[in-house]
Inverse folding.
């Protein structure tokens, strides 16, 4: 139900209460109001989440892709060069922590970049608290310790959609006018000339036998 309709229903029930009703009806209306208020809050939260997701989609996508590449770079170095340096392990965990930060970031609040310095101390504190929470959940096994696998599927899906979109834009359907023009050109191309018609008629005439 739309927000405007829910609000209208709430106002309507409040008007009924203001007019004075018996206790049983009052309890019934109160229960309905509780349900409507819950639904209103839920719809508002969903709308805010959609708005925030749309607003911060691009920056999240860019940061996820950067971290995904950094993680893969370290993993490839470990495979190719047998790199077991502690700094590499710390960097790998840090990038995975930051990637999980993006994946698990609340959708109904302003996004604070994990790769760029926050603009104020409050955002710096909030980001660090979220990173600490992510770290504890990773260590406890509550969230994935290899988030790059999740992002890999997401990036694949985005790339497929992008390719299909570009293909669709290139393949423009023929309009009726262009189809008619094409048919006209085709029929004109195969239509015999007047000279050839005359020659055919002459050759078929008994006079020339």
């Amino acid at each position: 139900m739309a927000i405007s309709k829910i609000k209208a229903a709430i106002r309507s029930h409040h008007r009924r209460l203001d007019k004075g009703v018996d206790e049983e009806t009052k309890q019934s209306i109160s229960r309905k109001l509780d349900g409507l208020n819950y639904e209103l809050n839920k719809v508002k939260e969903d709308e805010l989440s959609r708005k925030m997701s749309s607003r911060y989609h691009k920056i999240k996508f860019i940061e996820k892709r950067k971290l995904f590449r950094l993680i893969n770079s370290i993993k490839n170095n470990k495979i190719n060069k047998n790199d077991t340096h502690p700094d590499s392990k710390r960097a790998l965990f840090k990038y995975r922590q930051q990637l999980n930060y993006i994946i698990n970031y609340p959708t109904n609040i302003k996004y604070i970049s994990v790769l760029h310095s926050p603009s104020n101390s409050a955002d710096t504190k909030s980001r660090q608290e979220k990173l600490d929470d992510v770290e504890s959940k990773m260590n406890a096994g509550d969230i994935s310790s290899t988030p790059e696998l999740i992002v890999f599927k997401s990036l694949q899906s985005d790339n497929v959609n992008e390719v299909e979109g570009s293909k669709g834009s290139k393949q423009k359907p023929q309009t009726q006018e262009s189809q008619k023009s094409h048919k006209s050109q085709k029929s004109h191309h195969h239509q015999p000339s007047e000279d050839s018609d005359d020659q055919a008629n002459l050759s078929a005439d008994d006079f020339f036998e």
Observations:
- The CA atoms of residues 65 and 155 lie 8 Å apart.
- DSSP finds seven helices and no strands in the chain.
- Residues 188-209 have pLDDT under 50 and may be disordered.
- The radius of gyration is 34 Å.
